[in-house]
Amino acid sequence: MIVEQLFADVILPLPLDYHFTYRVPSAFQFRIKIGARVIVQFGKRKFFSALVYKLHQNTPSGEFEMKDIDAILDDDPIIGENQLKIWEWIANYYCCTLGEVYKAALPTGLKLESQTKISLNPDAIITDDLTDKETAVVLLLESRKTASIQDLNQFLGQQSSFAILKLLLEKNAVIVEEQMRESYKPKLVSMVRLNPEYDSEEKLNAMLDLLSRKAKKQEQLLKVFLAETLFGNLKLTEIAKKDLLQIADASDAALKGLDEKQVLEVFQKEIGRIARTHDADLLIKELSEPQQIAHDEILAQFETQQTVLLNGVTSSGKTEIYIRLIEEQLKQGKQVLYLVPEIGLTTQIITRLKTAFGDQAGIYHSKFNDAERVEIWFNVLNEKSGKTGQQYQVILGARSAIFLPFKNLGLIIVDEEHENSYKQFDPAPRYNARDMAILMGNVHGAKVLLGSATPSYETYFNARSNKYGLVNLTERFQGIEMPELFPANTQEAYKRKQMRSVFTPELYNEIASALHNKEQVILFQNRRGFAPFVQCGKCGWIPKCRYCDVSMTYHKNRSSLICHYCGHTTSLVVKCKECGSDEIKTRGFGTEKIEDEIKLLFPEARVARMDLDTTRAKNAYEQLIWQFETGKVDILVGTQMVTKGLDFDHVRVVGVLNADNLLNYPDFRSYERSYQLIMQVSGRAGRKNNRGKVIVQTTQPNHPVIQDVISNDYYKLFSRQMAERKMFRYPPYYRLIKIVVKHQNKERLDLAAMNLATAFRNIFNKNVLGPEYPVVARIQMWFQKEILIKLPRDGKIQEAKTKIMEIINRTKTQPNNSQLIIYADVDPM
User: Fold this and answer.
1) Measured between alpha carbons, how far is residue 462 from residues 447, 465, 470 in Å?
2) 430 near 420, Cβ under 8 Å?
3) Is 576 exposed, middle or buried (0-12, 13-18, 19+ CB in 10 A)?
């Protein structure tokens, strides 16, 4: 039978706008599948793991050398048809390439890397004209057989060895080849089992009798094995080698002897890296009457709406409603995706999910290592059934979890949907996981539930416009009152010299009262470090980052000045570089300073800090939360991390230390975000016991947003902001696309940005703002400007994006623009 030639269009993990076609060798034609990974050569020496996007028999036109697929990595697809549809939508909507989506979607452990290997040419004649360094490389290769570029760099003690390698290649002394390296390897453990030949008691007794005369240690080890497995309470058929040797207090030699006698067999077994340890009885709590009403309304709304907003006040018990909805999906055999904005939130929520669903619930986020993420990927794909235990039916995760290969998705929950952490900023694709969840719901035929106490204005607008369903939950669980909110005027307190460090009398007294009553306190300041900057008290000089246009933040515990944009670090300056004065003073305050001041003012209090500096380690966040939950910490100082959905029983006082920073940020969303942050952190107070108190420190106590916060009037602020946004053409009435232009030469940047803006204005007229420098105009030596394009919601968004990308691509190819970076950020946050 003659088989027609088959071709495969593949997606490469590169920022390229088009697919590449490869010939499928006849040996692969019945194995290759769409959504599986293959190895292809791209360029002269580079190999990549590409994803099969399309199979066809259309011979590509054009004069070029057609390459074959080198190998097939997967017998079955690791990406389903629905995932590919979602990838295509992401690439089109967010103005990026399928290659960039591929890079973002798959765990690193599933992306093979090409690694250059150097070895001696066996046919080469090594002459005496080699330099010392070339001779050294030859000697290294003689001893090692092969080496990587990194090996050569390290051996020669220099950053790059390419020049030496080039000379050796010209002399035909070495061979350079590309080898594929796969970073994911299944986790194996050595197990011990009984040889099937000894399946009868008679044979076992005979062997034990023989061993008792000739090998006492082997006899003892075999008895322990039998006691722990076949004759034990659990009736196991195998046991981990490590456990067996430890229980029997035996040596590896004894086990090796039994293995050689073919009594016991030592074998390798693949196990999961993710712990499955929930053995307790499962428990799902009964809903209160308001919760039950909200639950029933959600189900009723789902009859006609694919997406529903649950607008529930803080501490109203939204999580319990989620759990009941998840239970109903699991009974139908469906999968559930539960998204949260921050990795730290998974700590408390997974405990509640495990209590309700046991090991059916799992977590997926970027703090897992590569191997763990690959394992969860295959678990969701249901491809490793029986090897790594029960499949996850409920996945709790941050935004990257939307890329998991769900096959039977029934419900997506987006908790705290207003959070801008759902937005991916860099690199591409610059997607919003909340919006992606709604798309996933459409593709999979799943329902989407958005939850928040302070919904984003776009979501609330859609709900009030009947695009989404809307369910309100206005009562806290068990009828607990909302916390009292008080503004504290810092300007007046400073004038009257009533401030205690950075604390107004109102906040200081409430902290003292809470500590006296054995209650807990949360203090929110949205700046980490000790001080935002240091300044010369004589001439006003401020040390700035050499790579970014921003002042350096002082971190006392490291005695360093650190740039929060690029990470550049220098030691604390003791003398002014302008006037030589030693009057260097700290200005402002961050979480580190607040922690120090609290310890001085309340020495008996146990204080902890929750910010990026204290939660870098894998389990640091969980440890902090556990300490606060169990009462080992009295006062928790933190950045935005403390505002997001955490549930603590004994917090009575919350202090917002500087509301002005939030209100005065130059962004059209600043009032919306100020309200959200203050209300969210306020919601941590008085959740289970006495009514909580929230002190908001500000120089503007009569500011409209502060007054709306105090009266808990979300709708009033929403209505006022909607009128302004409609007038000035901002979301939700218009869509925004931000064009970011970068160059290391300021003059080149100015010229290119101005030409771009002119080209955009020729098409979009007055709906183009800029170009303007952002708040920080230079980051890591790259100057940047931004152009904002406002597009009406008239259904022509894709046509407008096509024109935008044409202009961007044309600008990139113009003379002198080779080092210009331009990208489009759709729906910027």
Assistant:
1) 16, 5, 9
2) no
3) buried
Question: pLDDT category, 715, cuts 50, 70, 90?
Answer: very high
Cis preceding-peptide flag for 405 (omega within 30 of 0): no
- Specify the amino acid at residue 758: T
CA atoms within 13 A on the CB side of 53: 20
Calpha distance 616→636 (Å, rounded) = 17
Binding site feature residues for Zn(2+): 536, 539, 545, 548, 563, 566, 576, 579
CA-CA distance, 232 to 224, in Å (whole number)?
10
Binding residues: 536, 539, 545, 548, 563, 566, 576, 579
Question: Which residues have C-beta within 8 Å of that of residue 745, sequence separation ≥ 6?
Answer: 783, 819
CA torsion angle 588 590 594 596 (round to 10): -100
Secondary structure letter of residue 540 according to DSSP: -
Structure tokens of 655?
């202090």
Strands 37-42 and 71-72, how do they pair?
antiparallel
Nearest C-alpha neighbor of 50 from the set 69, 66, 27: 69
- Residue in the structure block whose two tokens are 């058929």: 237
Evaluate whether 313 touches 390 at the Cβ level (below 8 Å).
no
Classify each residue of 140-177 as buried b or exposed e, where b means 16 or more C-beta atoms within 10 Å of its C-beta.
bbeeeeebebebbeebeeeeebeebbebbeebebbbee
Cα 240 to Cα 293: distance, rounded to the nearest angstrom: 51
DSSP strand pairing (584-587 vs 533-536):
antiparallel
Residue 814 contacts by C-beta under 8 Å, 6 or more apart in sequence? Answer: none
End-to-end CA distance of the chain: 58
SS3 breakdown of the chain: % helix, strand, coil, rounded to 5? 40, 25, 40
Tens digits of residue pLDDT in 141-197: 887 778 876 777 777 776 556 667 767 876 778 876 655 555 555 667 788 888 888
pLDDT tens, residue by residue, 787-810: 999 999 887 888 999 999 999 999
Sign of the CA dihedral with 494 first, then 498, 500, and 506 last: negative
* Token reading at 439: 């798309």
Report the sign of the C-alpha dihedral through residues 500, 503, 504, 510, in that order: negative
Count of CB atoms within 10 A of residue 321's CB? 25
What are the pLDDT digits (tens) for 579-606?
989 899 989 899 999 999 999 999 999 9
Residue with structure tokens 């904005």? 341
What pTM does this model have?
0.80
* Cα–Cα distance, 678 to 674 (Å, whole number): 6
Contacts of 43 (CB under 8 A, 6+ apart): none
**Rg (the chain; Cα; Å):** 32
497-505: long-range pairs with CB below 8 Å, 24+: 500/601, 501/597, 501/600, 501/601, 502/589, 502/593, 502/594, 502/597, 502/657, 503/597, 503/601, 503/655, 503/657, 503/697, 504/695, 504/697
Q: At what angle do helices 433-444 and 81-93 cross, to 10 degrees?
A: 140
Task: Give CA–CA dist 685/656, Å, rounded.
Answer: 12
Closest by CA position to 759, among listed 748, 771, 749, 747: 771
The secondary structure of residue 200, as a DSSP letter, is S
Sign of CA dihedral 663, 665, 671, 676: negative
For the chain, the residue count is: 829
Q: Which of 634, 635, 702, 658 is nearest to 499 (CA)?
A: 658
Q: Nearest 5°: phi and psi at 376?
A: -65, -40
Q: With helix as H, strand as E and coil as C, how does 566-603 read?
A: CCCEEECCCCCCCCCCCCEEEECCCHHHHHHHHHHHCC
What was the pLDDT predicted at 386?
38
